[in-house]
Amino acid sequence: MVIVAALGAATLLRPSETAGQEACGVLRDEGLVAKVQAKLLLSALWAKVGSLVVTSNECVVTLAGTVPEQKNIVEAERIAASVQGVRRVRNTLRVASQ
Questions:
Q1: Which residue from 3, 25, 36, 49 lies 20 to 30 Å from 97 (Cα-Cα)?
Q2: How many Å apart are CA 89 and CA 33, to the nearest integer?
Q3: CA pair distance 17, 76, nearest whole angstrom
């Protein structure tokens, strides 16, 4: 067993959680947000994005904001879902009004 202490709270993780993708919490969510943002920044999509916010809760990544075209919504979701550790993508992106 491994004990992880973060932000003043200690959490006891079973060995299976430390070895695989099962463990999810605040630190893991922060890491997922950083990874998704990095992948989006490196994509051709980023130059087209109007306003995009990435958050994560319990390894479920939420994409919010606006993009110029419907196909950008699909592409952003595909990129987010490709990040290891993301359990699901909640896509609330909208096409910006012209």
A1: 36
A2: 12
A3: 28
Q: How far apart are CA 88 and CA 85, in angstroms?
A: 9
Q: Which pTM value belongs to this model?
A: 0.72
Tell me how far apart the alpha carbons of residues 52 and 45 are, in angstroms, rounded to a whole number: 11
Task: Kindly give the parts of the chain with pLDDT less than 50.
Answer: 1-21
Give residue-wise pLDDT tens across range 47-63. 777 678 999 999 999 99
3-state SS of the chain is CEEEEECCEEEEECHHHHHCCCCCCHHHHHHHHHHHHHHHHHCHHHHHCCEEEEEEECCEEEEEEEECCHHHHHHHHHHHHCCCCCCEEEEEEEECCC
